[in-house]
């Protein structure tokens, strides 16, 4: 199983390298089209069913012509609607079209042929081979008309490479796209298969081997990956015989005022579950009874002044801290954050610890940079709203989600976890920094995680992993995946408090260095 994701440009380079290495482009296209046909048969066969191929002007269309021929040879009734005349096709796509011996329907017959007829046992299957990696502008005109017909008729769609109109680079829809039941792509998946709305529109994803040798990736050096355990599994620490609780890592969670104390409680509990040896909530005296009276394994320490907080961080063998959940958007939070950054080896800044710097983001970033320069591991975990407060220019006009998170990590020097349904984790592109420009897209989080406090749990998990010494990028990516996996084990109706309780099962499953343990959870590594 491969975890790298290739941008359309990187995929093109892989393609060209394979061709330069002696594999004919037409052979790659043949393999791609055959894979599409094979998946159509597997999903909709074995009884032949009427198929309509929508073929575009480039190589994506070429794959469609090959699939059409292979299906027709297997006895499936196939029609082709081509966006351009065959005479206008070039290269491998032209070769593929020239091998088609059936009819090519004029676009004026599209509606007639797409509509289910009385003689159809089932609605026709549409192979969407209009545009793939070469999508250059919004889909409009005839292509949009064809896709609208498919959408209105609600036909089952198999997309070649990506649903036409979805950008392989960022999952955004340019113009229009229709939802596929199945997408067959080649060699490696693309970021657009995993970022919304592309992830939603692509349906089930099959990545077919079309004979491109993996060695072509070496000079390309892909830096985007789907967030899966092999990315960080080796960095998880297991309790060792000689451990005591301080050696496993002391995590401090900043506790806020009584009315929002639940957030820090969730984070503290999750930090313990993630494996911190001990967790202390630091708070003012008015909240002490709340923190002390709840989670028996979590300790509480009253720190009446910022100086007392700093002294505690310096004298209690603190390995990491989580600041922000329910802490309050005020000068006191800023003060605690500055002191924690200045003296701790590892830190998660979430929620209020980010919002409190809305008007002084540059100040926060310069402190983070100074700390990471001396080796501190810092993770920030904004949702889109918090991200917009710290990076208003990037949020307003920062390109794709990937580009935005990358630019944010470069600017602030921390590992950035941009939370959402398709959480993205990015490390800064500093030469020599351990995270050096790496980026992971998470795909395992169920929508039921959109519940109050889920983010506090995530911050606690990340803090617990940092406290055990994990590198920042690995800890952040692992936390996001473990959080999603834990939620997936819970039924609808789950609330934030339930998540940490599933961590033992999830951690047990990912502890081995192979993937076998994951099967025990009841969900495999494929698809999502
Ligand atoms: N890489 C690999 O390893 C392999 C890749 N393979 C396949 O190749 C696909 C990439 O092929 P590709 O580069 O020819 O691009 P493709 O997606 O066909 O689009 C380009 C054409 O569409 C046109 N066009 C674009 N946008 C448009 C719009 N909105 N509205 C109208 N027209 C628009 C554009 O026109 P132009 O911009 O030139 O005017 C051009 O004619 C890839 O997705 C995969 O399926 C396989 O064969 C096996 C190996
Ligand atoms: N639709 C969704 N699908 C999957 N995960 C989601 C979805 N919505 C939110 N999440 C996840 O739930 C958590 C919510 O965090 P956050 O926005 O900070 O909420 P809170 O402050 O209430 O804890 C994040 O980890 C986010 O990635
Ligand atoms: K397509």
Automatic annotation (TrEMBL):
AMP binds at residues 419-423, 455. CDD domains: YXKO-related. K(+) binds at residues 60, 128, 164. In the C-terminal section; belongs to the NnrD/CARKD family. Belongs to the NnrD/CARKD family. This is Bifunctional NAD(P)H-hydrate repair enzyme. The lineage of its organism: Bacteria, Pseudomonadati, Pseudomonadota, Alphaproteobacteria, Geminicoccales. Keywords: ATP-binding, Isomerase, Lyase, Metal-binding, Multifunctional enzyme, NAD, NADP, Nucleotide-binding, Potassium. Residues 228-510 form the YjeF C-terminal domain. Its EC number is 4.2.1.136, 5.1.99.6. Residues 11-218 form the YjeF N-terminal domain. Binds 1 potassium ion per subunit. It comes from Tistrella arctica. Pfam families: Carb_kinase (PF01256), YjeF_N (PF03853). (6S)-NADPHX binds at residues 59-63, 132-138, 161, 263, 326, 383, 456. Catalyzes the epimerization of the S- and R-forms of NAD(P)HX, a damaged form of NAD(P)H that is a result of enzymatic or heat-dependent hydration. This is a prerequisite for the S-specific NAD(P)H-hydrate dehydratase to allow the repair of both epimers of NAD(P)HX. Its cofactor is Mg(2+); K(+). It catalyses: (6S)-NADHX + ADP = AMP + phosphate + NADH + H(+); (6R)-NADHX = (6S)-NADHX; (6R)-NADPHX = (6S)-NADPHX; (6S)-NADPHX + ADP = AMP + phosphate + NADPH + H(+). InterPro entries: CARKD (IPR000631), Nnr (IPR030677), Ribokinase-like (IPR029056), YjeF_N_dom (IPR004443), YjeF_N_dom_sf (IPR036652). It comes from the Bacteria. Homotetramer. The gene is nnrD.
């Amino acid at each position: 199983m491969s975890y790298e994701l290739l941008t359309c440009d990187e995929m093109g380079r892989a393609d060209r390298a394979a061709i330069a290495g002696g594999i004919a482009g037409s052979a790659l296209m043949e393999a791609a089209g055959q894979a599409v046909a094979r998946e159509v048969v597997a999903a909709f066969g074995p009884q032949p069913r009427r198929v309509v191929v929508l073929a575009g002007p480039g190589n994506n269309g070429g794959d469609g012509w090959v699939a059409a021929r292979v299906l027709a040879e297997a006895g499936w009734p196939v029609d082709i609607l081509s966006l351009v005349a065959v005479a206008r096709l070039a290269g491998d796509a032209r070769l593929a079209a020239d091998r088609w011996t059936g009819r090519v329907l004029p676009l004026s017959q599209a509606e007639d042929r797409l509509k289910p007829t009385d003689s159809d046992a089932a609605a026709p299957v549409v192979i969407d081979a209009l545009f793939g990696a070469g999508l250059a502008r919004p889909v409009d005109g005839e292509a949009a008309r064809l896709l609208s017909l498919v959408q209105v008729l609600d036909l089952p769609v198999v997309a070649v490479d990506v649903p036409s109109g979805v950008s392989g680079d960022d999952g955004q829809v340019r113009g229009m796209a229709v939802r596929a039941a199945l997408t067959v792509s080649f060699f490696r998946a693309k970021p657009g298969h995993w970022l919304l709305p592309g992830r939603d529109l692509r349906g089930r994803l099959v990545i077919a081997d079309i004979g491109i040798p993996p060695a072509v990736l070496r000079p390309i050096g892909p830096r985007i990956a789907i967030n899966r355990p092999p990315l960080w599994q080796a960095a998880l620490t297991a309790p060792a015989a000689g451990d005591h609780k301080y050696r496993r890592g002391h995590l401090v969670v900043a506790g806020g005022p009584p009315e929002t104390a639940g957030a820090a409680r969730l984070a503290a509990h999750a930090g313990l579950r993630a494996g911190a040896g001990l967790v202390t909530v630091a708070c003012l005296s008015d909240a002490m009874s709340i923190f002390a009276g709840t989670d028996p394994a979590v300790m509480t320490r009253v720190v009446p002044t910022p100086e007392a907080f700093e002294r505690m961080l310096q004298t209690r063998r603190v390995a990491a801290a989580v600041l922000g959940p329910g802490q309050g958007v005020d000068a006191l939070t800023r003060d605690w954050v500055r002191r924690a950054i200045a003296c701790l080896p590892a830190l998660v800044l979430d929620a209020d610890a980010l919002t409190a710097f809305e008007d002084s983001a540059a100040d926060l970033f310069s402190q983070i940079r100074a700390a990471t320069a001396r080796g501190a591991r810092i993770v920030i975990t904004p949702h889109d709203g918090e991200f917009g407060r710290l990076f208003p220019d990037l949020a307003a006009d920062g390109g794709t989600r990937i580009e935005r998170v990358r630019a944010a990590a470069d600017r602030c020097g921390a590992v950035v976890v941009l939370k959402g349904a398709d959480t993205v984790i990015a490390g800064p592109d500093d030469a020599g920094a351990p995270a050096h420009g790496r980026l992971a897209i998470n795909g395992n989080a169920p929508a039921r995680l959109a519940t109050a406090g889920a983010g506090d749990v995530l911050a606690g998990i990340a803090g617990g992993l940092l406290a055990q010494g994990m590198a920042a990028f690995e800890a952040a990516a692992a936390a996001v995946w473990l959080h999603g996996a834990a939620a997936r084990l819970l039924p609808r109706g789950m609330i934030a408090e339930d998540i940490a309780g599933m961590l033992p099962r999830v951690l047990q499953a990912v502890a081995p260095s192979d993937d076998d343990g994951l099967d025990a959870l009841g969900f495999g590594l494929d698809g999502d």
